[in-house]
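Methods — Computational structure assignment.
A single polypeptide chain was analysed. Its primary sequence is given first, followed by the predicted tertiary structure written as structure tokens.
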Amino acid sequence: MRIAVIADIHGNLLALEAVLADLARRGGADRIVDLGDCVSGPLWPAETFARLEMIGALTVRGNHDRRAALDPPDAMGPSDRFASERLTEPQRDWLAGLPLCIEVARSVLAFHARPDHDERYLTEIIVEGGLLRAPLAKIGKRLTGLDPSFRLLLSGHSHRPELLRLPDGRILFNPGSVGCPAYRDDTAPAHVSESGSPLARYGLVQLDPANAPVSIEQHAVGYDHEAAARRAAENGRPEWAHALRTGFMPA
């Protein structure tokens, strides 16, 4: 089985289209897995939702999917509010009803952040306002209680491409963000995540007949990020525009 793994689109339709075109050039996939945070952001939430409906990806719920669907408007951040106001009630209900985890194949589990929480980092720690890889022992502890038969874990949330093997042999794969290469989170402790480039990220996983990974590929795709940055600026989000142009947050 060949699985395409996308995550953290954040309403960036142009980046999503570039990723899907690149995937098609590489021969496509048997299954597309979407690790959540589909539409939140000052870009094209409704249009991105419609495109995702067309591809029929297996989708898990991200924290911003939940917030854009369920938080009271006055409690939403600007990105969630922008998306929520442009979605229909059935679309918001669909986001709210997404599962926390999906068993993609026997021994392969997909989730947004952690298997038991959509908003806590799995493979990262916050150090001096940035994200670094957590010690393997800490990552393992965060997976306490998870069925050990899942040998490949697919997650997003941090927007940081990551591929690592735990001491017990389990493999963790984060493809990085399709549409949001950098962000600032002001929740204490405040921090930034920065990929360092405007490229759209996704992954390809090839499984053998026993559903063990034969190969895992990380891909970075160019697209018209300037058009996306202009869209963010027009919608009053200059910091998003800077991130889309550079892969860094403004100083």
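Note: The longest strand covers residues 213-221.
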